[in-house]
Write a structure and sequence with these properties.
Elements: H1 2-27, E1 31-37, E2 45-50, E3 53-59, H2 86-96, E4 105-109, H3 115-118, H4 121-128, E5 132-134, H5 151-165, E6 168-173, E7 188-191, E8 194-197, E9 200-205, E10 227-231, E11 236-239, H6 249-256, E12 262-264, H7 276-282, E13 286-289, H8 298-306, E14 310-313, H9 314-319, E15 325-330, E16 333-336
Parallel strand pairs: 3-4, 4-5, 5-6, 6-7, 11-12, 12-13, 13-14
Antiparallel strand pairs: 1-2, 1-15, 2-3, 8-9, 9-10, 10-11, 15-16
Helix pairs in contact: 4-5, 6-7, 7-8
Length: 347
């Protein structure tokens, strides 16, 4: 009888211990996903990390630019010079453990052919060897002369790097296609716009824009910008590329994407993006501006204040000399590595 009681007590104790351990494990703060934003005054360079696998959405400006010696790439007025981010970007990628040898860079997404987004694309692709490269098709003939800048130059270099490194280049999409398609002999494939990244899911939106060019062409390369939605089991993050509020883009996003936890504002938060209806529909807890607050319109500022968004401009992160503006997606909530900036500083 005594032995039976001892066994019963031991069993009850073991069960109690297991229950306690399960309860404690549920309270432990843990994460599998992070978003890293390069802290530069202006430009997009974003790195998604999930369960040891990485994806890059744009990579910022380069020191390189066309000098006019090649007639395909005129030295046009308005081309950015002397503002490359290589000295910040590559050490950050190395520190995070992104490596061609490890093969842990799953994709590079170039949202559109502007140098403040893909100026460094060819260097990133050549050094870190992503398995897949996504970018909209582009040719200078799609735009008026005064909107072409060095677009063709940075676009052609991105495409050449994808081909030379053996990356699968995806510029056509089908929702029934494989998430990780095999490239054909020309190095290209039709891709599914939604695919896994570690424990997250990534979706490319806005990919049909360049396929429906209006008569007379586009006004700007921003008009063909991809947007990127990524989600894990708890949180939704929307990276709005250079989407602007003129035309239907923001309205379509508001209707189809809905509520998100983190929003990277469109077009660096400039006053031609971030309408009230767009911000209210997405209602983010965290808002990232890849620029400076003085560029925000009053409409965007008030809308972000209305939804009580925590606001993070990369210009402020640059002033603080952060290696990256980092958002960690814990099971208990999202945390940033800097305090939110107070909205309304510029009236």
């Amino acid at each position: 009888m005594r032995n039976h009681m001892k066994v019963t007590i031991a069993l009850i104790s073991a069960i109690a211990l297991i229950v306690s351990l399960i309860a404690l494990s549920g309270c432990t703060k843990r994460y599998t996903t992070r978003l890293h934003v390069l802290p530069i005054a202006y430009g997009d360079a974003l790195i998604i990390e999930s369960n040891g696998v990485f994806g890059i959405v744009d990579s910022g400006e380069s020191w390189d630019y066309p000098d006019g010696s090649d007639p395909r790439y005129p030295a046009r007025e308005g081309i950015t010079k002397g503002d490359g981010v290589e000295e910040m970007l590559f050490p950050l990628l190395d520190e995070l453990g992104v490596s061609a040898q490890k093969g842990n860079l799953q994709f590079y997404i170039g949202t559109h052919p502007h140098s403040d987004h893909i100026g460094t694309a060819s260097q990133v692709i050549e050094k870190y060897r992503p398995k897949y490269v996504y970018t909209p098709r582009y040719d200078d003939s799609m735009l008026p002369e005064d909107a072409r800048w060095d677009n063709q130059y940075v676009y052609d270099r991105l495409i050449a790097a994808a081909h030379s490194t053996g990356a699968t280049l995806i510029q056509d999409f089908d929702i029934s296609a494989d998430a990780f398609p095999q490239a054909g002999e020309d190095g290209t494939a039709v891709g599914n716009p939604t695919f896994p990244l570690g424990n997250a899911t990534v979706s490319i939106l806005g990919f049909a824009k360049s396929e429906t060019m209006p008569e007379g062409g586009f006004a700007d390369a921003n008009d063909i910008s991809y947007e990127v939605l990524f989600e894990n089991d708890k949180y939704r993050t929307f990276l709005a590329g250079d989407v602007v509020k003129y035309g239907p883009s923001e309205q379509i996003i508001a209707e189809t994407v809905g509520k998100v936890d983190v929003l990277k504002l469109g077009h660096h938060g400039n006053d031609n993006a971030g309408s009230k209806d767009f911000i209210l529909a997405l209602s983010p807890e965290f808002a990232i501006q890849t620029g400076s607050e003085y560029a925000l319109s009053g409409e965007t500022t008030r809308a972000l204040m209305d939804v009580k968004a925590k606001y993070y401009p990369t210009s402020e992160a640059a002033d603080l000399r952060l290696n990256d503006l980092m958002f960690t997606y814990y099971n208990t909530g999202i945390e940033a590595n800097m305090k939110p900036y107070e909205l309304g500083q510029w009236g």
